[in-house]
Amino acid sequence: MNEINLKALAKINLGLDVTGIREDGYHEVSMIMQTINLYDRITVKIAKADGIFIETNVKYIPVGPKNLCYKAAQLLMEEFNITQGVKIKIDKHIPVAAGMAGGSTDAAAVLYAINKLFDLGLNKKQLMERGVKIGADVPYCLMRGTALAEGIGEKLSPIHPMMKCFVLIAKPPVDVSTKQVYTDLDAKFDKVKHPDIPALIKDIESQDLKSLCLHMGNVLEEVTIPLHPEIARIKNIMMENGAAGSMMSGSGPTVFGLFESETTAYDAKAKLTESGLCRNIYVTTVFNNK
Questions:
Q1: Residue 114, exposed/middle/buried by CB under 10 A (0-12, 13-18, 19+)?
Q2: Catalytic residue among 17, 40, 106, 137
């Protein structure tokens, strides 16, 4: 084998709470993470020339050492003294800088691919331990499914798989700085409303979509939405057109809506398209390991 092709799946947050600020500046979180069937295609191939070579269909994505895929390949190649080069092709479909772990899931795919191509023999846990050096979301992107994430996002506990439903994804044409969102949150930390993460876990265990949607919450909305009110408008359009619930994912600006009916999800997509508020709109489903 000298080439491997993979789907790098996106994630949404069904619940996102920030529980504290550490001395090193990182934030302690409690999140319910859920993989969805929206993905980038990652191709990793052993190259004839030495080095790490990246190409992508999105012009503004860096292809050098700043790219998380580059960092993932470099991490394993240096650790295991791999002297052959690799070519990485990123066919991007997950919106960039959207709160959906697009860069992290691509890096996770590269870790998996390098491990397979060079027969390194690392298991999933060992890959996850290395992945956190690249980014806090990378271990989850290797694990996938439905999980409680704590610490800075690296402490993962699998929970009952989420119920089947349809997911409408909509990203407005704005970019959000995750670092800035967390900095702004610090200034109002004592005043924000925190979601009930244990209640969300119970809703998932009982497979109650309506109750889950009532308990969904993202503490970062209170920072990002005032900066980008179109996020609230997108949420309202989803709710007015049949979503059981709608919320911003991660630090934004992507909004997702959960739907029981595929037809209703596509009808809501049409309404959002008419609104002109969104750059990227997709209808997909949740992904579970089981």
A1: buried
A2: 137
CA pseudo-torsion sign 91, 93, 94, 98: positive
Residue indicated by tokens 């924000």 = 192
Closest to 279 measured CA to CA, from 132, 93, 50, 26 = 93
φ, ψ for residue 137, nearest 5 deg? -85, -15
pLDDT, the chain, mean: 95
- Concerning whether 71 is annotated as a catalytic residue, the answer is no
Assess contact for 103 and 113: CB atoms under 8 A.
no
Distant-in-sequence, close-in-space partners of 40: CB < 8 Å, separation ≥ 6: 7, 8, 90, 91, 92, 93, 94, 102, 105, 106, 109
pLDDT digits (tens, 9 = 90+) for 180-226: 888 889 888 888 889 999 999 999 999 999 999 999 999 999 999 99
What's the token pair of residue 238?
């989803």
Phi, psi of 48 (to 5 degrees): -75, -35
**Active-site residue, 11 included:** yes
Which residues sit opposite 290 in a β-bridge?
none
pTM (2 d.p.)? 0.94
What DSSP designation does 286 have? B
- Bridge partners (DSSP) of residue 7 are 41
